[in-house]
Amino acid sequence: MTENGKWSSVQATELYGVDSWGAGYFSISEKGEVAVHPDGPGGASVSLMDVARGIQERGFDLPVLVRLSDILDARIKQLHESFSKAITEYNYRGCYRGVYPIKVNQQQQVVEEICVFGAHYHHGLEAGSKAELIAAMSFLQDPEAYLICNGYKDEEFIDLGLYALKMGIRCVFVIEMPSELDLVLDRSRVLGVKPILGIRMKLSTQASGHWTESGGERSVFGLNTAQVIDVVDRLRKENMLDCLKLLHYHLGSQIPNIRDIREAVKEGCRIYTGLVEEGAAMGVLNLGGGLAVDYDGSHTNFTSSCNYTTAEYCSALVEEVMSILDETGVPHPDIITESGRATVAYYSILLFNVLDISRFETHTLPEKMPEDSHELLTNLMEAYKALTAKNLQECYHDAIYYRDEIHELFKRGGITLRDRALAGQIYWHILTRIASLIRGMRYVPDEFEHLASALADVYYCNFSLFQSLPDSWAIDQLFPILPIHRLNEKPTQEGILADITCDCDGKIDRFIDLRDVRRTLPLHALKDNEDYVLGVFLVGAYQETLGDLHNLLGDTNVVSVRIDADGQVHYAREIEGDSVADVLTYVEYEPKEMVRRVREMAENAVKVGRMSAKDRRAVMDAYESGLRGYTYFEREN
Questions:
Q1: H/E element, 571
Q2: Are 474 and 466 in contact (CB under 8 A)?
Q3: What pTM was estimated for this model as a whole?
Q4: pLDDT tens per residue, range 54-64
Q5: Smallest Cα–Cα separation from 130: which of 164, 170, 181?
Q6: Quick check: 271 and 247 in contact, CB under 8 A?
Q7: Furthest-apart CA atoms within the chain: distance in Å
Q8: What residues contact 187, with CB distance under 8 A and at least 6 apart?
Q9: How far apart are CA 585 and CA 583, in angstroms?
Q10: Which DSSP letter does residue 630 get?
């Protein structure tokens, strides 16, 4: 609190950890609103709430995905300049070339802007499928940038890559499985194009985190040591060993521990030097992805964090590569990394409004129990009255026992519905009292870990977890979430977030915390006639492309924003979210046929006198308007 007792932006910043995870791009203003700083602290800034208002004034409803193009530009710049600084400091004699894996976010605007912002640095693309290759070929025009082709490759895929080479694109085929080599060589002869080849190697090194199985000798993709030697021998036999220029490995996405990254580089460099000794031309070392995003701001090796900065990451890679290659006398290769998550995560924010709240409330208990109360009810009330800080575990166990016994008795018809309701109220009063008592304790027993979430209010929010935040559901990924306004008011509620999918899994009940994982989120009470808007940050990586159509809730509206040096907001691009008709088409419905069927049913209702012709018109207007409408909750004008 401030000296005058008011809640301030300083307290809000600490509560939500904005300075820890925001990487300098976000802060909380004195006005109590989240501010965006695309160029970092000290540069131009805008209120995210003002951006949201501007979007709504232009006719776009929440939820909306806001893309901050300037932050994407800044992320690419930071990555390249961090490598450039490390290369200069260590006197490294190769260069750095960044590559963006399209799979991380395949949206056309994202790929296009990466190519535009990365042109100065010769930033390339990585394609893991035919469709991604076709997309990459249309946007990557820089002959010095790399187009890395990973994944399984059929004849058409390979032909497209060879044509890209003919057009001057530096396209590299990374051999993922032994059978690919014969196909690449055959098509190269047919088309008369000398290929640029790479090898993906399975390292023995494995990293911690969600994607530990991406590495290791039993990982799905890549060649083992014997297969690598077979590729070398085959290329030597074909007199094409000079085509082998690149070694690639992938340790995994979101690697939290810098030590794992260093160990993988050491192993990768030994393999690289071995290939040089075998006579391969080499010259490029692709260290794959893994550069992590500190989602929770704890700066640790927790799965949603990382214990290093981008600068430390770049410095560690350059140092390890240089030390091993200098030891063996092998020339320094160009270094490639496929840093997708760290490039685009900060770029996108999901904004949505709260529709309603289900408050946790307890009714006032009677001063004395009814005379005919069952013994179990009386015992439950006595447990409540006896509850103190010293015996709370004992009373908690008693409460659970009596509650369960009462539920069983009710199933057998032994007590009334009113008795069961009273038992529930006593039980929740006990839990509420325990929650109050443990707040001041230095040690809280593990069995009370989930008590806060059990007593939390439920904030019903206008979004679909499965469409917009699938990793939160699928792998328990944590994202920073907070209100984007009213942050100069102290939040008085503890809540969990529920979406509008009508699915028990459609909720967020795990939130970032510097020391652990929070089970509830501090929030404000709703005000009449005012939207309460929350933002989910760092959602640019994977969330847009992994989402599904649960409950037929489709893509949200998307608005891209640019911020000039004076802090002026430019709404650069607007993409309407899916209509109801759109998503029905995705799952094989035909909207025109549906309209015909409903019109016919309405006309039959008119014929038999169930409705008038005027009613029929109202029905059809409503039905067709619904088809055109947004799949999310829309406020009435």
A1: strand 569-575
A2: no
A3: 0.92
A4: 999 999 999 99
A5: 164
A6: yes
A7: 99
A8: 155, 158, 159, 162
A9: 5
A10: B
